[in-house]
Amino acid sequence: MVLTIRGRNRHDGPAYDIKFYGHGEDTLLLSCGDDGRIRGWRWKEFTNSDVPIPLQGNQVKPVLDLANPQHKGPWGALSPIPENNSIDVNMKGGSIFSASGDSCAYCWDVETGKIKTVFKGHSDYLHCIVARNTANQVITGSEDGTARIWDCKSGKCIQVIDPAENTKLKGFFSCVSCIALDGSESWLACGRGRSLSIWNLPASECVSRISTRASVQDVLFEDNQILAVGAEPLLSRFAINGAVLSQIQCAPLSAFSVSIHPSGVTAVGGYGGLVDAISEFGSHLCTFRCKCV
Amino acid sequence: MEDGEIDEGAMVVDDEDAQSAVQLKIERSAHEMLQESKASVEDTVAKILSIKKEGQPKSLVRELVTQMFLHFITLRQANRSILLEEDRVKAETERAKAPVDFTTLQLHNLMYEKNHYVKAIKACKDFRSKYPDIELVSEEEFFRDAPEDIKGKTLSKDSRHDLMLKRLHFELFQRKELCKLHEKLELQKKKLLDAIANRKKFLSSLPSHLKSLKKASLPVQNQLGVLHTKKLKQHHLAELLPPPLYVIYSEFLAQKEAFCENMDLEIVGSLKDAQAFARQQANKDTGISTNVESSRLEDDAPDEEDDGQRRRKRPKRVPSKENLDQEGLYQVHPLKTILHIYDDEVSDLKSAKLITLKFEYLLKLNAVCVGIEGSHDGSENNILCNLFPDDAGIELPHQAAKLAVGDALTFDEKRTSRPYKWAQHLAGIDFLPEMSPLLTSHGAPSGETAKSDAVISGLSLYRQQNRIQTVVQRIRSRKKAQLALVAQLDLLMKLRWPAVTCESVPWALHNPVCNLHGWSTVGHQSIQALSLPVVETEQVRESIDADMNGRSGTSKEELESAREDGELPSLVPSASVTGDVKLNRLKGSNHEHSRQLTLISKSLVPPISKTKSQSFKKPDDDLDLMLDTDSDQDGPAYIELESENTATQYYEMGEKSWVNYGAKEFCLVLTRNMDTDQRIWKLEAKVNLHILKMLPVDQENYILSHQVCYLAMLFDYFVDESSPSSEKRRGISVVDVGLSKPVSGRLLARSFRGRDRRKMISWKDTECNSGYPY
């Protein structure tokens, strides 16, 4: 899930996030991007298609197309369509959550394609969103430096998580660039600027705070460990208490995204379209470069 | 011939093994031989003797001797054979005796054995078995129940014996099983007995444990606010409450529990006094002084520890003394209900206590009085005054009470707690309004009469429902409003800009360039002007209508809302008061008030609707803003703002202008040092007309601040004619200054976009701005 996939030829501008929706035959690949649209594609059509991959984008039609609403200004002026920076899904509820540029998060109904809930409250645009499906909540991280927990049912903000409270961050912008939940959905990792904070959600308390050399750009839970990448060619592995377990050099100079396969293989994607696959033992399996279609 | 015989005899002797017949023959022959020889010897001898006697020759004797000799030999031979024969017979006898002896021995053995057996048999026969004593299971049962291994094996050849043995085995088996079972049950019994003993012990120790636990939990209960023990005491106390206070207590309690209202109830007062009072009451009722009962009542009193403490605290206090203080008429029941109302907005875990009300019951007047605990302010500052229209708490609510009081028409004003009408309603004391609604609306057109009927029915509905909720909500909002108002007034007194937190209105973001020059209380002469006599009402309205043609619609609305005033429980006599209300409203452009009333009327149509209480608004905050039209055209520009605060300062007896009750007026002077001449606009209408539309509901308490800020903004705009200086703001909401009307919608300006934080640039003409949409 590399962040800067250009494409599927259907998004104008960069695509920022992709997610799978559903299982088996009906799996949809959802993508969102700078054009403020969420599109769903039948994954089967990609895998079964005999058209060469570079051309697929033109062949396959999206089955789902959701466009962000524009804000109304005075005298009928319309704002530009806000971009979608991140999406997450709740399969059970048939919802897609999108973190949008107009500082709102939206909950879309997959069936009707309409907005079910608008989560309004952040003062600047959103970077990331994570659905906490067991509690029917979503967690968003914003440019304004806070993360918020929202109740999907009421659309109200339950808690504002301010990773920077009680600490002074010197200089540098500090937005919440990435958040991640662990498998039990009771631990939250929140990357803000050059720090990573781990929260226990049931206790709503910050259990540890990790300072990194470069700003954190993606974070991931693997069991009870945290994988984080940032604006440096390093893949770091932390324990929940904040101790550094390992740091592995990786190919991209600035890593935008990290993902892990159940087998333990980690993929780090980053600047220059580089993807680095690292085995569970820390050896580099392969490195490849994405090409513009 | 004798030789033959000897031969023959010798032959027989030699042959010892000859047959018995032969032997017999031999023996006979030997004996015969002996007989014959003896006879011969005797003959011979006789012959010899005869010879010798005769003296015959000797030769002849010779031959006889020889013959004699021969006879001797034969004799010897016979003797010998007889002896031999004897020996032989002896040996034979000896030989025959050995088997006889052996057989005899055998016989003896057998005899012995037999005796032994006979003895043993006898012993066996004499053996007494135990089994006859053993109660065996019956044979059928045995065959039915016995296991195969007992039934199957053969223990004896005798079938009966076998059966018996089997049965005995089975019996043994069964008994062993039963023994085992018995043992097991015994064990179990012992265990159970142990358990029972343990539990009994535990149970017997439990009460003391519970007691200590209860004791130990008291501080925790206090800490956590789970006042169980206290609650029990309270319930006990509640039983002694007079009926009206009991109604209040129970209803508030029910409200609290049903809707999780953020409030607390408490009953205070001396338990002893209450009991004494109850006794007294009972005695009065029955007419019999029952010492027994009184003692019983005393016994009934819970042995609470703090009772003693309470007595220690005020040992000298006697109910009679209290009565002396309060002079019969205002005699108060010893128990009082205290109601703490907390902030309903859950800002943090422990919401702030807003206000504490004390309900007490006047015995003689049969009225419930309410006061604010801990406040001794005069009625002007009492926020309970006019909680509902025309309810200052000065008058006694019941006609009966009025008659009882006699001369003193009004309630003692010095008392801080007063018999408000709503309190009576809460306490379940319903009473008739002084004048019938029909009578009071006689001056009104017929359509209005019909309306007032609807009003009454609506009122009755209102009375039944949501009373508590409404009152609590009103008190709460009023107290909040009061706090907010005081804070705002304080700020203004200090000539600082009041803070406006709501960001959805343009003036909140506007940084005023002008200064707050002055803020002073205007004397109450203006109030006199406001409360014009009823007669002038129509004219005034007309004239003002003519003046402000733009407002005619509004005044219509006001009219209606004024009419619907009557739906409030106090039942303002419509016609006369309506005039006043209208007057005030028109004169002072008391728009907010009208709006409030409109909202009341709206929400009363569905009386159960929950939104109702929200829209209730207290008259405290009614503000009138006025801009002096005739202010100086030259010099430093200033706008005079008159803010009339219908809060609580003055009460005018003669009039029913409860709306004006305790109104305050303020004068606000804004200045800005500018050299240029300024045009001063009359902004009054615009401010008042539109400000409420633009404010969200939760900002209602800060209307004064909003108005001041808005005025400052408008002032700034008019002072320097430049375009609004809102370019620096991030969110743009545009206000059409000319129409003084907010344009709906707002665009978010930002300079970054996307996760990669790309910079946006927009340009107008030649100038570049970061961010869009410009």
UniProtKB/TrEMBL annotation, chain A:
Keywords assigned by UniProt, alphabetized: WD repeat
The keyword Acetylation is assigned to this record: no
Organism: Carya illinoinensis (Pecan)
Matches recorded under SMART domains: WD40
Biological process annotations from GO: mRNA export from nucleus
Superkingdom of origin organism: Eukaryota
PANTHER family: THO COMPLEX SUBUNIT 6 HOMOLOG
Name the record gives this protein: THO complex subunit 6
Any one Pfam family match given in the protein's UniProt record, by short name: WD40
WD repeat residues: 119-160
Any one annotated GO CC term: THO complex
InterPro entries xref list: THOC6, WD40_rpt
From TrEMBL, chain B:
Name of the protein in question: THO complex subunit 5B
Entry keyword annotation includes Nucleus: yes
Record field: compositional bias (Polar residues): 282-294
Organism annotation: Carya illinoinensis
Cited InterPro entries: THO_Thoc5
Main location: nucleus
GO molecular function terms noted in the UniProt entry: mRNA binding
Gene Ontology cellular-component terms listed: THO complex part of transcription export complex
Basic and acidic residues bias (residue ranges): 554-566
BP-aspect Gene Ontology terms: mRNA export from nucleus
Protein's cellular compartments: Nucleus
Family stated for the protein in its record: Belongs to the THOC5 family.
Annotated keywords: Nucleus
Region (Disordered): 282-325, 544-574
